[in-house]
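Homework help board

Subject: predicted structure for assignment chain

Our instructor gave us this sequence and asked us to write out the predicted structure in token form, then describe one feature. I got the tokens but I'm not sure how to describe them. Can anyone check?
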Amino acid sequence: MKNSSTKDLIQIALLTSMLSVASVFVIPIGPVPITLQVFFFLLIPALIGRLKGALTMGLYMLLGLIGFPVFAGGTGGFQSILSPAFGYIIGAILVSLVVGRLHKRSASTIEMLGTMFLGIVLLYIVGMSYQYFIMNQVLETAISWQTIIVTNVTAFLPIDMIKAFTAGLVYQRLEAVLVRTV
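My token output:
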């Protein structure tokens, strides 16, 4: 990133560490566990923008792939790319670029929530596509698109919508606090 300030690098490092800590605690319900990752996948680009948000997600992915235990449940290592859940980490980079680009400071609650929900849709498209590929082609576990969609929509979507809503509220609160302190 050209012309990165110390503040930019600190923000990226701090938010990467927050995402890493949020990923360690899981509720295991199948090949894709429930974590707080989605909350941070949406909050981070809203806070620091699309480029720094994508760099944060990329650094998080790199740390996990080189072996730091930052992925769901404290896992890490290059073998993580074979996990059906890894597509959601890849999707987080796209989500950062889109949410960070569409999000506007002082946006109405409806606009902000719409951006967060669009982020969820993009995350699910990438995550479910990767999950289908890994399970059918790599792990040789025959699973249909319909099963993946139904499972993700019924088991994860309600929880992730709450995370999106909460990320939006937390962002608005942080924005209000930061505006008052500047």
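Reply (TA_rk): Your tokens look well-formed. For the description, you could write something like this. The mean pLDDT is 88. That's the kind of observation they're looking for.
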